[in-house]
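Sequence, please.
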Protein backbone atom coordinates (compact mmCIF):
# COMPACT_ATOMS: atom_id res chain seq x y z
CA UNK A 1 0.00 0.00 0.00
CA UNK A 2 1.19 3.50 -0.84
CA UNK A 3 -0.11 6.70 0.77
CA UNK A 4 0.33 10.03 -0.98
CA UNK A 5 1.43 13.10 0.91
CA UNK A 6 -1.56 15.01 2.27
CA UNK A 7 -3.98 12.08 1.94
CA UNK A 8 -6.52 11.13 4.61
CA UNK A 9 -6.53 7.31 4.79
CA UNK A 10 -8.71 5.35 7.20
CA UNK A 11 -8.31 1.68 8.12
CA UNK A 12 -11.30 -0.42 9.13
CA UNK A 13 -11.65 -4.12 9.85
CA UNK A 14 -12.85 -6.71 12.38
CA UNK A 15 -11.49 -6.60 15.92
CA UNK A 16 -8.10 -8.27 16.17
CA UNK A 17 -7.22 -8.00 12.48
CA UNK A 18 -4.15 -5.83 13.14
CA UNK A 19 -5.29 -2.23 12.62
CA UNK A 20 -3.58 -0.88 15.73
CA UNK A 21 -0.53 -3.08 15.17
CA UNK A 22 -0.15 -1.55 11.71
CA UNK A 23 -0.43 1.95 13.18
CA UNK A 24 2.15 1.09 15.86
CA UNK A 25 4.54 -0.11 13.16
CA UNK A 26 4.08 3.17 11.29
CA UNK A 27 4.73 5.03 14.55
CA UNK A 28 7.92 3.03 15.15
CA UNK A 29 6.63 1.50 18.39
CA UNK A 30 6.74 -2.03 16.93
CA UNK A 31 8.78 -3.71 14.21
CA UNK A 32 7.31 -5.84 11.41
CA UNK A 33 8.22 -9.53 11.48
CA UNK A 34 8.68 -9.37 7.70
CA UNK A 35 8.34 -6.83 4.92
CA UNK A 36 9.08 -3.15 5.31
CA UNK A 37 7.51 0.23 5.98
CA UNK A 38 9.01 3.40 4.52
CA UNK A 39 8.52 7.15 4.67
CA UNK A 40 9.87 8.96 1.61
CA UNK A 41 12.07 5.93 0.93
CA UNK A 42 13.50 5.72 4.46
CA UNK A 43 12.72 2.63 6.56
CA UNK A 44 10.83 3.18 9.81
CA UNK A 45 12.71 1.62 12.72
CA UNK A 46 11.94 3.97 15.63
CA UNK A 47 9.55 6.78 16.62
CA UNK A 48 10.30 10.12 15.00
CA UNK A 49 9.30 13.77 15.04
CA UNK A 50 7.85 13.43 11.54
CA UNK A 51 5.00 11.33 13.01
CA UNK A 52 2.57 12.42 15.70
CA UNK A 53 0.27 9.92 17.43
CA UNK A 54 -3.18 10.67 18.86
CA UNK A 55 -4.32 7.77 21.05
CA UNK A 56 -7.79 6.74 22.18
CA UNK A 57 -6.73 7.68 25.71
CA UNK A 58 -5.87 11.35 26.11
CA UNK A 59 -2.48 10.72 27.78
CA UNK A 60 -2.31 14.23 29.26
CA UNK A 61 -0.14 14.99 32.29
CA UNK A 62 -2.70 15.61 35.07
CA UNK A 63 -0.35 17.92 37.04
CA UNK A 64 0.16 20.30 34.11
CA UNK A 65 -2.25 22.93 32.76
CA UNK A 66 -3.56 22.70 29.23
CA UNK A 67 -0.93 25.16 28.00
CA UNK A 68 1.86 23.31 29.79
CA UNK A 69 0.69 20.00 28.31
CA UNK A 70 0.67 21.37 24.76
CA UNK A 71 4.02 23.14 25.11
CA UNK A 72 5.75 20.07 26.54
CA UNK A 73 7.20 19.02 23.19
CA UNK A 74 8.51 22.45 22.16
CA UNK A 75 9.95 22.94 25.66
CA UNK A 76 11.82 19.62 25.45
CA UNK A 77 13.19 20.68 22.05
CA UNK A 78 14.45 23.95 23.61
CA UNK A 79 12.27 26.15 21.42
CA UNK A 80 12.76 29.80 22.55
CA UNK A 81 9.92 31.01 24.84
CA UNK A 82 8.50 33.67 22.46
CA UNK A 83 8.28 31.20 19.54
CA UNK A 84 7.02 28.48 21.87
CA UNK A 85 4.17 30.67 23.05
CA UNK A 86 3.29 31.60 19.48
CA UNK A 87 3.18 27.99 18.26
CA UNK A 88 1.18 26.83 21.29
CA UNK A 89 -1.35 29.64 20.83
CA UNK A 90 -1.71 28.69 17.16
CA UNK A 91 -2.24 25.00 17.98
CA UNK A 92 -4.80 25.77 20.69
CA UNK A 93 -6.65 28.09 18.33
CA UNK A 94 -6.65 25.47 15.61
CA UNK A 95 -8.53 23.00 17.84
CA UNK A 96 -10.82 25.58 19.44
CA UNK A 97 -9.30 25.67 22.93
CA UNK A 98 -8.32 29.34 23.14
CA UNK A 99 -9.35 30.62 26.58
CA UNK A 100 -8.92 27.27 28.35
CA UNK A 101 -5.12 27.47 28.60
CA UNK A 102 -4.93 27.54 32.40
CA UNK A 103 -7.30 24.67 33.11
CA UNK A 104 -6.05 21.30 34.29
CA UNK A 105 -7.09 18.04 32.56
CA UNK A 106 -9.61 17.16 35.29
CA UNK A 107 -11.36 20.47 34.57
CA UNK A 108 -11.83 19.60 30.89
CA UNK A 109 -14.55 17.54 29.25
CA UNK A 110 -13.65 14.39 27.33
CA UNK A 111 -13.94 16.23 24.04
CA UNK A 112 -11.71 19.06 25.25
CA UNK A 113 -9.11 16.57 26.46
CA UNK A 114 -9.02 14.91 23.06
CA UNK A 115 -8.69 18.33 21.42
CA UNK A 116 -5.80 19.00 23.77
CA UNK A 117 -4.17 15.72 22.74
CA UNK A 118 -4.52 16.75 19.10
CA UNK A 119 -3.07 20.21 19.82
CA UNK A 120 -0.11 18.61 21.61
CA UNK A 121 0.65 16.68 18.41
CA UNK A 122 0.02 19.59 16.02
CA UNK A 123 2.33 21.95 17.93
CA UNK A 124 5.27 19.75 16.90
CA UNK A 125 4.32 20.12 13.22
CA UNK A 126 4.66 16.45 12.20
CA UNK A 127 4.31 15.44 8.57
CA UNK A 128 1.99 12.56 9.45
CA UNK A 129 -0.83 12.23 11.99
CA UNK A 130 -1.45 8.69 13.24
CA UNK A 131 -4.84 8.50 14.97
CA UNK A 132 -5.88 5.32 16.77
CA UNK A 133 -9.65 5.38 17.35
CA UNK A 134 -9.37 8.83 18.94
CA UNK A 135 -13.13 9.31 19.39
CA UNK A 136 -14.15 5.80 20.48
CA UNK A 137 -14.71 6.74 24.13
CA UNK A 138 -16.79 9.87 23.43
CA UNK A 139 -20.55 10.33 23.28
CA UNK A 140 -22.16 10.64 19.86
CA UNK A 141 -22.63 14.43 19.98
CA UNK A 142 -19.04 15.14 21.06
CA UNK A 143 -17.74 12.61 18.55
CA UNK A 144 -19.59 14.38 15.75
CA UNK A 145 -18.16 17.75 16.74
CA UNK A 146 -14.61 16.40 16.87
CA UNK A 147 -15.02 14.71 13.50
CA UNK A 148 -15.83 18.15 12.11
CA UNK A 149 -12.79 19.63 13.90
CA UNK A 150 -10.44 17.00 12.49
CA UNK A 151 -11.84 17.49 8.98
CA UNK A 152 -11.32 21.24 9.32
CA UNK A 153 -7.77 20.91 10.71
CA UNK A 154 -6.87 18.50 7.90
CA UNK A 155 -8.27 20.91 5.30
CA UNK A 156 -6.17 23.73 6.80
CA UNK A 157 -2.91 21.82 7.22
CA UNK A 158 -3.13 19.11 4.55
CA UNK A 159 -1.07 16.80 6.72
CA UNK A 160 -1.05 13.13 5.87
CA UNK A 161 -3.50 11.31 8.18
CA UNK A 162 -3.60 7.58 8.93
CA UNK A 163 -6.79 7.00 10.92
CA UNK A 164 -7.98 3.78 12.58
CA UNK A 165 -11.65 3.33 13.43
CA UNK A 166 -14.36 0.71 13.90
CA UNK A 167 -16.98 3.10 12.53
CA UNK A 168 -17.71 2.76 8.82
CA UNK A 169 -19.69 6.00 8.87
CA UNK A 170 -16.75 7.86 10.41
CA UNK A 171 -14.44 6.41 7.76
CA UNK A 172 -16.65 7.60 4.90
CA UNK A 173 -17.17 10.98 6.55
CA UNK A 174 -13.47 11.81 6.92
CA UNK A 175 -11.42 9.92 4.35
CA UNK A 176 -10.03 10.15 0.84
CA UNK A 177 -9.48 6.40 0.95
CA UNK A 178 -10.77 3.61 3.19
CA UNK A 179 -8.64 0.49 3.51
CA UNK A 180 -10.51 -2.59 4.71
CA UNK A 181 -8.51 -5.33 6.46
CA UNK A 182 -9.42 -8.99 6.62
CA UNK A 183 -9.54 -11.27 9.65
CA UNK A 184 -6.34 -13.01 10.72
CA UNK A 185 -3.97 -13.23 9.13
CA UNK A 186 -4.52 -9.50 8.67
CA UNK A 187 -4.18 -8.38 5.07
CA UNK A 188 -5.62 -5.71 2.80
CA UNK A 189 -9.00 -6.84 1.49
CA UNK A 190 -9.99 -3.63 -0.31
CA UNK A 191 -8.76 -0.09 -0.92
CA UNK A 192 -11.74 2.15 -1.66
CA UNK A 193 -11.50 5.72 -2.89
CA UNK A 194 -14.10 8.11 -1.42
CA UNK A 195 -14.92 10.67 -4.08
CA UNK A 196 -17.66 12.58 -2.24
CA UNK A 197 -17.36 16.36 -2.06
CA UNK A 198 -16.76 18.03 1.32
CA UNK A 199 -18.38 18.75 3.70
CA UNK A 200 -20.18 15.43 3.55
CA UNK A 201 -23.79 14.71 4.35
CA UNK A 202 -24.25 11.32 6.13
CA UNK A 203 -27.92 11.33 5.12
CA UNK A 204 -27.27 11.59 1.37
CA UNK A 205 -27.82 8.63 -0.95
CA UNK A 206 -24.25 8.73 -2.29
CA UNK A 207 -22.81 8.72 1.24
CA UNK A 208 -24.90 5.72 2.19
CA UNK A 209 -23.93 3.85 -0.97
CA UNK A 210 -20.30 4.04 0.16
CA UNK A 211 -21.25 3.07 3.71
CA UNK A 212 -23.28 0.04 2.62
CA UNK A 213 -20.52 -1.17 0.30
CA UNK A 214 -17.93 -1.04 3.10
CA UNK A 215 -20.28 -2.64 5.62
CA UNK A 216 -20.86 -5.46 3.14
CA UNK A 217 -17.08 -6.06 2.96
CA UNK A 218 -16.86 -6.27 6.75
CA UNK A 219 -19.85 -8.59 6.99
CA UNK A 220 -18.20 -10.93 4.50
CA UNK A 221 -15.09 -11.02 6.67
CA UNK A 222 -17.05 -11.65 9.85
CA UNK A 223 -18.98 -14.46 8.15
CA UNK A 224 -15.72 -15.95 6.89
CA UNK A 225 -14.25 -15.82 10.39
CA UNK A 226 -17.33 -17.46 11.94
CA UNK A 227 -17.27 -20.24 9.33
CA UNK A 228 -13.58 -20.81 10.03
CA UNK A 229 -14.24 -21.10 13.78
CA UNK A 230 -17.17 -23.47 13.22
CA UNK A 231 -14.97 -25.63 10.97
CA UNK A 232 -12.23 -25.80 13.59
CA UNK A 233 -14.69 -26.70 16.35
CA UNK A 234 -16.18 -29.44 14.15
CA UNK A 235 -12.72 -30.83 13.45
CA UNK A 236 -11.92 -30.86 17.17
CA UNK A 237 -15.09 -32.81 17.93
CA UNK A 238 -14.09 -35.51 15.44
CA UNK A 239 -10.72 -36.12 17.10
CA UNK A 240 -10.58 -39.51 18.91
Amino acid sequence: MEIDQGAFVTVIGPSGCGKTTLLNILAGFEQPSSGGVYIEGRPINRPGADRGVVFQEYALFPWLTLRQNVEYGPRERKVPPPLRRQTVDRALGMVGLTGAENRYPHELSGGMRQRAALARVLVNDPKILLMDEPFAALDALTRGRLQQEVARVWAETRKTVFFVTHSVEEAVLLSDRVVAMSVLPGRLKADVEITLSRPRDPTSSSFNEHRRALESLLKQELASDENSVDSEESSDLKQP
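The chain is about 45% helix and 15% strand.
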